[in-house]
Amino acid sequence: MYNKNMLTPRLNCIVNYVNSSETTADIGTDHAYVPIELINSGRAKRVIASDIKPGPLKIAKSHIEKRGLSDRIETRLGSGLSVLAPGEADYIIIAGMGGELICDILKENTETARLSRLVIQPMNGQYELRRYLIENGFTIEREDIENEAHRVYNFIIAKNGRSEEFDNDIDYHLPPYLYSHPKFPLLFDKKRREFKKIINGLERADICDGKRLNYYRECLVKTEEIRNAL
Length: 230
Prior knowledge:
Number of helices: 9
Number of strands: 7
Largest sheet: 7 strands, mixed
Oligomer: single chain
Helix content: 40-55%
CATH topology of the largest domain: Rossmann fold
């Protein structure tokens, strides 16, 4: 059964970015811990909890019923934002998925995405996600960094609106507005390890993609320049 202690730092961070919501949608809700806390904390009056798989949605529904919140949290089975009507939710949470999958979800229902504030927590592919948002008419209002044990997470708050593109490609990996974040060193170390792992894999490959190898070597050099400048 759900209790607030089940909320990890990652999930707590997601909850804290929803404020005074009439209706929030949690896409890929899993166990519905976030929707339940949104209601209990008063951050949302109503929540739509969706999942593409019947199994997790059944578990979510069970947790919701046990908390007596079935009248305020509605479960819906379906893919991405297809479960929503445009403008139905003032906040849309898309968390715990890969960045490229999140891009696909936004592409498939762009109108719906544009009419809500987006609370996004990508598990990977942050570079691709930032580039997609900025190049496709969304503005990144802010970002946050949280960690659980050895894992480091990015949180992106975005809405419809024009954003200036970054001057340098490395900024899509490590945005300058995060340099002053107290947990930026954790993100920096994560990206540095990521670049090194990719480089090592490319160097050991039977057929090396020289262009990709040079790109990530340059990224690694740029990360060192960032560290030296801070």
